[in-house]
Structure to design on (674 residues):
């Protein structure tokens, strides 16, 4: 315990680390503020610069960017009704009506404070739950990791896009990108087309930056003449009475956010939408009707999406399974720094875990500070024309990709993925599952092969194991249930039942 | 269901063809030799990709079609909405040119040319503003990444900044 505490405060005693966390949070908030620049994009470009750094320094920056970015998106959602990040979509439902009432300052103040408490809540759960989960995870067999990974891809595929088929297509595409190169077990070349350059595989950071950076630049290029509306914001410090009044709701929504964030494949965006739904159902007398500027409708999603950050770290640190696209990128960064996220991480390098927890707490404090100040700079950022911003993103993408292994081939891959990503986005495919697939692909590959080896190649025994072992059974049931729930047959059946119920009630 | 975007039907078929190609390529790795061979897992993934792209094609066929007069009309809308020559195709051209020039010209010079071209092409507020902005951006990027973060940037052989005491 004492040791954990000393690791925890490590981030608080080194001025350079404090500076890096602050800088990360600041960068995250302001990247999140810019519509179209997602946290995932910021983290993917940023991690490539940290490869040569000390691991603590890299972790400090990443924690800040993640937390700041998730929060930052809500500001534009409130002020101009353009969410800066997917997690902020729900914040616009009532935040923007508040801004139209001239209460943008109050809305930003409330959202910042609630985000701060939500983030702390999520981190507290992370600190309490992760050690338990990781001990539990030591009992996981390779097939359980396989199931968890499949579950993650299906979940993100089902929740993030317009159809499960597109989600699975993208997830599997990512898996295949991850298999290019030499087979990790038999060293057989796979999908290399006889090219030496492909033997080493396609670096996943090149794929991430291409899919999130360049493709977004191309999407934004089409929309250069977007008009930005100016808003006047004066007082943003919320009064204690407002905070205290909404504290119970924000605690409930933080709990929702942490749980959703901890699920593999679901992140802040879904947490925020679920929390909004919870608020609509549970708050009987909102300050104003929902959708017309109810403070509750802003408190709920903001608390949830910030607490989802702590939640998302749980499967990442204990299982090595990403909770969403951003944690997928973070896991990639940990690999590059020579760390292996998973149950052994807590045992072999407990200081990294407690250091991260300490860092996240510090990032939350900076979130509060930067969130309640610098409104003028924020207004300038929102007004920055995409025509000036996009070329800079291209340069950062090139620098980031090149610095992975000083290779221009990676840069060309990044561009190719960027153009491909543009078409995928245009036609309703989601990018998130691809990145999850790239990170989960190798985990699934090795888990699958190990699982098959343990049953000596007998497929019958493999399937039997899925049902006999309690952990595997729960995961199998969840996976199968989720798949069936997404089929058109089940959806029709469920819709039919709902209609019958409504007919009976009405 | 939303109305399809111009070119979406063709893209669906293209993705189906792409996944069939990948299925064939993954089959070539180890065939059906054994379930734990290096090829079985990618082949399973590619098969899943084929199935999901078939589902996408079927869904596309059921969705409301693009409002356009035949394939020629859809092509025109594709050229106007999805891949317009200005700014999209032109800008992709500029990015490609930049990436080809990084090696012969080095990072600083090629990035300056790229930024200058991009600002001029996208921002359209005159050549002097584009010049000033691109010089300012390249200098700040160089200071932040090369001097502060010590990131290695592509450098041209003929332009050795270390000679004048910069970089290294």
């Amino acid at each position: 315990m004492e040791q954990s505490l000393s690791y925890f405060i490590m981030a608080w005693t080194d001025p350079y680390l404090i500076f890096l966390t602050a800088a990360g949070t600041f960068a995250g908030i302001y990247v999140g503020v810019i519509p179209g620049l997602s946290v995932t994009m910021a983290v993917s470009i940023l991690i490539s610069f940290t490869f040569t750094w000390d691991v603590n320094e890299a972790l400090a920056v990443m924690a800040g960017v993640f937390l700041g970015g998730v929060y930052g998106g809500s500001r534009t959602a409130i002020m101009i009704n353009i969410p800066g990040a997917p997690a902020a979509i729900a914040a616009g439902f009532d935040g923007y009506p508040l801004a139209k009432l001239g209460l943008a300052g109050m809305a930003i103040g409330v959202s910042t404070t609630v985000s701060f408490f939500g983030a702390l809540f999520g981190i507290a759960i992370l600190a309490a739950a992760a050690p338990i989960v990781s001990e539990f995870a030591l009992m996981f067999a390779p097939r359980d990791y396989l199931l968890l990974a499949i579950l993650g891809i299906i979940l993100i595929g089902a929740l993030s896009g317009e159809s499960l088929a597109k989600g699975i297509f993208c997830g599997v595409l990512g898996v295949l990108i991850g298999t290019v190169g030499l087979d990790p077990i038999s060293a057989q070349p796979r999908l290399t087309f006889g090219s030496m350059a492909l033997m080493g595989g396609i670096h996943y950071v090149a794929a991430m930056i291409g899919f999130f950076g360049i493709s977004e630049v191309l999407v934004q290029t089409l929309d250069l003449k977007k008009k930005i509306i100016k808003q006047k914001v004066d007082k943003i410090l919320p009064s204690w009475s407002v905070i205290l009044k909404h504290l119970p709701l924000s605690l409930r929504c933080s709990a929702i956010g942490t749980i959703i964030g901890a699920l593999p494949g679901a992140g802040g965006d879904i947490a925020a939408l679920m929390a909004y739904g919870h608020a609509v159902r549970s708050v009987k007398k909102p300050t104003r009707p929902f959708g017309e500027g109810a403070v509750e409708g802003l408190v709920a999603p903001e608390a949830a999406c910030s607490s989802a950050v702590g939640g998302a770290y749980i499967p990442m640190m204990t299982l090595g399974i990403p909770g969403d696209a951003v944690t997928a990128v973070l896991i990639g960064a940990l690999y590059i720094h020579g760390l292996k996220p998973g149950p052994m991480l807590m045992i072999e390098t407990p200081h990294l875990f407690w250091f991260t927890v300490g860092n996240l707490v510090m990032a939350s404090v900076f979130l509060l500070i930067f969130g309640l100040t610098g409104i003028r700079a924020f207004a300038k950022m929102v007004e920055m024309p995409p025509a000036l911003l996009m070329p800079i993103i291209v340069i950062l993408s090139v620098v980031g990709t090149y610095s992975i292994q000083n290779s221009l081939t990676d840069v060309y891959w990044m561009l190719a993925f960027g153009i491909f990503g543009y078409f995928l986005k245009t036609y309703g495919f989601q990018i998130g599952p691809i990145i999850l697939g790239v990170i989960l692909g190798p985990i699934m590959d090795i888990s699958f092969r190990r699982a098959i080896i343990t049953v000596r190649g007998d497929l019958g025994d493999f399937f039997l194991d899925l049902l006999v072992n309690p952990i595997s059974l729960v995961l199998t049931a969840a996976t199968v249930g989720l798949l069936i729930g997404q089929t058109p047959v089940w959806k029709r059946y469920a819709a039919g039942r709902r209609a019958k119920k409504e007919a009976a009630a009405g | 269901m939303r109305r399809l975007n111009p070119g979406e039907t063709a893209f669906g078929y293209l993705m189906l063809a792409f996944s069939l190609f990948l299925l064939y390529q993954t089959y070539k790795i180890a065939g059906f030799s054994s379930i734990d061979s290096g090829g079985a897992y990618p082949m399973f993934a590619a098969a899943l990709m084929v199935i999901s792209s078939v589902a996408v094609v079927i869904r596309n066929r059921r969705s409301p079609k693009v409002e356009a007069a035949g394939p020629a009309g859809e092509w025109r809308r594709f050229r106007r909405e999805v891949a317009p020559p200005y700014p999209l195709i032109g800008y992709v051209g500029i990015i490609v040119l930049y990436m080809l020039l990084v090696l012969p010209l080095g990072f600083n010079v090629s990035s300056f040319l790229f930024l200058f071209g991009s600002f001029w092409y996208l921002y359209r507020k005159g050549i002097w503003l584009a010049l000033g902005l691109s010089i300012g951006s390249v200098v700040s990027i160089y200071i932040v990444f090369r001097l502060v973060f010590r990131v290695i940037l592509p450098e041209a052989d003929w332009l050795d900044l270390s000679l004048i005491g910069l970089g290294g």
About this structure: Chain A touches chain B through 58 residues (CB under 8 Å). Residues 345 and 367 of chain A are 28 Å apart (CA to CA). Chain A is about 75% helix and 0% strand.
